[in-house]
Structure formats: C-alpha cells, structure tokens
Amino acid sequence: MNLPSYGLWVIQILCIALMAGQAMIALAAPTLPQGVFEPGQRASVSQVVDGDTVVLATGRVVRLVGIQAPKLPLGREGFRPWPKSREAKAALEALVLTRSIQLNFAGNRQDRWDRMLAHLVLEDGTWVQGEMLRQGMARVYSFEDNRAGVKQLLEIEDEARVAERGIWSHPYYDVRTPSETLRLKDGFQIVEGVVVDAAKVKGQVFLNFDSDWRTDFTIRIPRVVLKDFEKQGHDVLSLEGRDVRVRGWIRQWNGPMIELTHTEQLEHVGH
C-alpha cells in the first residue's frame, strides 16, 4: 500500500468513526430536565394499558403526562383503534414492563379518573416520555396545569417527525394545513400555516389563517393565556404574516378553531 492510499484509508476510517459517534449521540436516550421536577416514589410496572398509561405493582394507574400515544379501544364500544396504537403499546412495554421506574412531578399529580400524572424515569436515567417521542410512538400533549419539560419534549418530537419515525410515517398524524381543518371534526390536531391576520378583540386575540374570519381556521387566545405570553415577552400580534404551529382540540366556532389554554400549544416556526 503506498503512502497516499494509506492516508486516504485512514481518513475514510476516521470519517466513518465520526459519523458513527454522531449517530450514537443523536440516538442517545432522552433525560429529564434538571431542576424542574420533584422526584417521587420508585415503583415497579406490572401492566401497560396502552402507549401512555401503565399500572404499578401497587395497583395505581399512572398516565404519562406530557404525551399522547395512539389510542386503543380499551372496551369502548365502536371505538376504532388509531393507527400504530398496538406498536405504541409494545414500545412502552419494552421500555417499562416489570422494570423499576421513578415517578417525577411538576404539576397536578392526579386527574379526575384518579390516575397519577407523572413523568417516568428508568434506573439508567432514561426519560420514558422523551424516549416514546424519540421513537415516534407518541406526540406532545400538554395541559395548563402540567407544562414542565414541554419545550424539551417538543424538540424531541420535532426530530422524530422530520425523520418520519413511528406515527409520523402515517398520514393519520400529518401536521395539517389550515385549509385541511375545514373538513375535520372534533379531534386533537397539529396545524401549521401562515397567520393572515391577527386581531385583538375585547382583551383576547384571534389569529386568522384566511381573509374571512367567519369561516377560516382560527386560533383563539383568551385573556389569561395572552397575559402569560406578555409575561414571557411575546407579542402575539406580531405573528401576523409568520408561520406558526399550533396543537389542540379543534371545535367549530365561525369555522374550525383551536382555543389555547396555555402558551406551549403555540410555536413560532417561521423566520
């Protein structure tokens, strides 16, 4: 082997090693943000109900707060399973079933169905919610009384969506355009588009995505949420002409609308 060929071979090996190292970093298991959550009890998972709900050995049911996995019927008559729902359950089983987990809290700890609301961490430090998102087996789903870590969760979700992993390879979970919402009924959706008009009316803001506010897709920002945006230094009226992404439940009110309950539902994705 002559010297130039040997040098080229070494460079190729180094490049392959570098790319492998970058891939390992990219696929590293997510970890819980520090200084945000209050550690709770350790427990063993005895059953996985679906992709975002588990049962502890104590019998308590835990809802993995911050994410929404594809839904299974779970005894509901006439309910059709969402695409990838069985895969999501299997993914969560592979992560936590019969394993010891630590519950972590940063908001309301119990819902109206007496389920515990917690973020789960494995003994090796893996943040279960983050890992489900990284695999593309769930999407971010937050509440005004449970918003900790949402910024980090959105970043993980975004990476999985770009890579089209898991649910993001199925059209059922496509990010919708504003015009697509015109044919959508009640349901949780992620919608992205350019704000055509931003108007403040009686202390609340409406972000409209077409010229006719009576029929187009609209984001309604109530007074209490508007105050939160202002505290964070954000002027939502300045979003006019910009590309945004919003997630929430669509309902009909002068056309399809998503009403914000907290600021984390709205992302400014344009420049």
Number of spatially distinct domains: 2
- Give me the Rg, rounded: 22 Å
Write down the secondary-structure element order: HEEEEHEEHEHEEEEHEEE
State the total count of DSSP E strands: 14
- Count of helical stretches: 5
CATH class of the largest domain, please? Mainly Beta
Principal-axes shape call: globular
The portion of residues assigned to helices is 10-25%
Q: How would you sum up the major sheet?
A: 7 strands, mixed
**What's the N-to-C terminus distance?**
52 Å
Rounded mean pLDDT score: 90
Structural class per helix/strand content?
alpha+beta
CATH topology of the largest domain: OB fold (Dihydrolipoamide Acetyltransferase, E2P)
Estimated share of beta-strand residues: 25-35%
Poorly predicted tracts of residues: 1-26
So, CATH architecture of the largest domain?
Answer: Beta Barrel
List the helices and strands and how they pair.
Elements: H1 3-26, E1 38-50, E2 53-56, E3 61-64, E4 66-68, H2 85-96, E5 100-105, E6 116-122, H3 128-134, E7 139-141, H4 150-163, E8 187-194, E9 197-201, E10 204-208, E11 218-221, H5 223-231, E12 243-252, E13 256-259, E14 266-268
Parallel strand pairs: 3-6, 11-13
Antiparallel strand pairs: 1-2, 1-5, 2-3, 4-7, 5-6, 8-12, 9-10, 10-11, 12-13, 12-14
